[in-house]
Amino acid sequence: xxxxxxxxxxxxxxxxxxxxxxSGKVVLxxxxxxxxxxxxxxxxxxxSEEARPKQVSGADIxxxxxxxxxxxxxxFGNSESWILNAPxxxxxxxxxxxxxDDLMLDGRCLVFSFYNDSAYLKKVLKLExxxxxxxxxxxxxxxxxxxxxxxxxxxxxxxFEAKQYLLQAIDHEFMPMFDAFRLIKLNHxxxxxxxxxxxxxxVGVERMDQFALATDMGKKSWRAFFDRLLSIxxxxxxxxxxxxxxxxxxxxxxDASYLKSKxxxxxxxxxxxxxxxxxxxxxxxxxxxxxxxWEIDSKRKDQFLPSKLRAALLESHRGAFRP
Length: 323
Description:
6-stranded parallel beta sheet, alpha/beta, 15 helices, 2 domains, Rossmann fold
């Protein structure tokens, strides 16, 4: 069975915690890592520890592991279902072994989770009795539906004027829109109605352009990056939202292969594709850890965070900053 959805239709058709609807071999596919994470979080929501499937990264899947899990009977039987994350990263021998038709699933579920098209995905989809559930990228003429979905997802009661402003102010792409909503929710977690005046200070043109900041980061223009970052001064909630956004952006720079599934690349996509070539895995890991720590500092309203950022700015002026 193969089915394609827009994310708002998927969330409506598959209730929270609907993991029990799946069995056998399953492919969960989304158009980017964030959408795939939301997809999995949604169907696993509220499950007990016993009912939840285990998850494993493709790079950690060996032939011996597959034999133990799916080609032999354990001492107490094999009862766990599994989600295989990043299956393209599996060794070649492991990939081929998981295509065998004699895997012992015995009522269990084996999920391959992809956020990009690949040669291996095509092989998996040719298996018999495969269930394929795919979330496609929002179509540019349906962005208003994306806005309504995000209002529901974040439980943000935006009025009509606020919605219309966001449609004009934010790039009609999933991640920029998602991060704008996350920032609004962070600043207005309990409001009964969020109006235009509430979001203008957060998304308005007079505030720092976080996408310009992401570009500085992608180009490793650290002096411009920290100059722009310090313009926020000590607005800890804003900083927290920015550091969260930058982590999402950095993960896209680390692996831009998800763009292969897009028929049309936006300027944002094209920039990621170009800049991703200059980042090594070690650089991404190091900077990701730093951004995570700064996000924690922002959440704690650490009074030393501005000093840390100013110290990094001074290093960048000397050309000495390295993540």
